[in-house]
Amino acid sequence: MEHETLTLFRAAERGHRNFGWLDTYHTFSFGEYHNPDRMGFGALRVFNDDAVIGGEGFGTHPHQNMEIISIPLEGALVHADSMGNEKSIHTGEVQVMSAGSGITHSEYNGHRDQPLKFLQIWIIPNEIGVEPRYQQVHVDLKQNFVSVIVGPKNSSCPLWIHQDAWLSLLKLEAGKTAHYTSHREGNGTFTFLIDGSASIEGVAMQPRDAIGIVNPSTIEVVAESDVYAVIVDVPMIKR
Parallel, antiparallel, or unpaired: how do β-strands 159-161 and 145-152 relate? Predict the structure, then answer.
């Protein structure tokens, strides 16, 4: 395929901090990690890979004008917010929170003796000051199939956000090939390999590697081992 740009985000090049209770990797600048060449990918601003020890978590803190997606990979994520939601999100579920005009929330490991591992993804919205909102769904992922989980408002996706963006999950068996077609002309795709090894558009990828492609049309994923990946399809907004 012909691409305008292709950027690799290797696992070993991510920002990393270990606070004892939290072991976190940042694909893009976040907190004390600042890299002017890694300020996001289009409307995708944050992609954090977090591990929280038993009984610990993030105390109550504020957010505003951001679409936040959480994907548990292991354990239980306990969420409480200023809208009155008190939820436990487990592996196989996905959570969306539109911070909008302002919200406070906390996130904790729901187990005392098991680790919590989850991806936290922030997308810049196309509307600001909206009423905060919360959604959570269980997803049954099919093998060798791209499951679209999050989409824009009024889309047919299980979850929605205030942006012309989509988030999909892919499970692909070794030796199989999948093709992903961008939902919107001019968007870019950011593909993060959670588990397994694969060739994405001919580029060898290992666990926790990611690749961003601007104006991709269709991308090809060839699994070398069993693969679990997340694909974020976002407008390439100017910063």
Answer: parallel
Of the pLDDT bands very low, low, confident and very high (cuts 50, 70, 90), residue 4 is low
- The residues pairing with 166 across neighbouring beta strands, listed in sequence order, are 233
73 sits in the region (left: phi over 0; alpha: psi -120 to 50; else beta) called: alpha
Q: Identify whether the C-beta of residue 84 lies closer than 8 Å to the C-beta of residue 50.
A: no
Q: Is a pLDDT exceeding 50 seen at residue 156? A: yes
Rounded to 10 degrees, the C-alpha dihedral 75/61/101/163 comes to -40
How confident is residue 126, by pLDDT bands cut at 50, 70 and 90?
A: very high
- For the four alpha carbons of 232, 173, 224 and 197, in that order, the dihedral sign comes to positive
CA distance 54 to 115: 5
| Tokens coding 7 | 């950027």
Return the amino acid letter for 44: L
E strands, 53-85, are 57-63, 67-74, 76-81
Q: Where are the domains of the chain?
A: 5-235
User: What dotted CATH number matches 5-235?
Assistant: 2.60.120.10
Sheet containing strand 177-181, edge to edge, reads 177-181, 218-223, 198-200, 203-205
Whether residue 70 contacts residue 120, with contact meaning beta carbons closer than 8 Å, is answered with yes
Q: Is the pTM of this model over 0.90?
A: yes
Rounded Cα distance, 62 and 100, in Å: 11
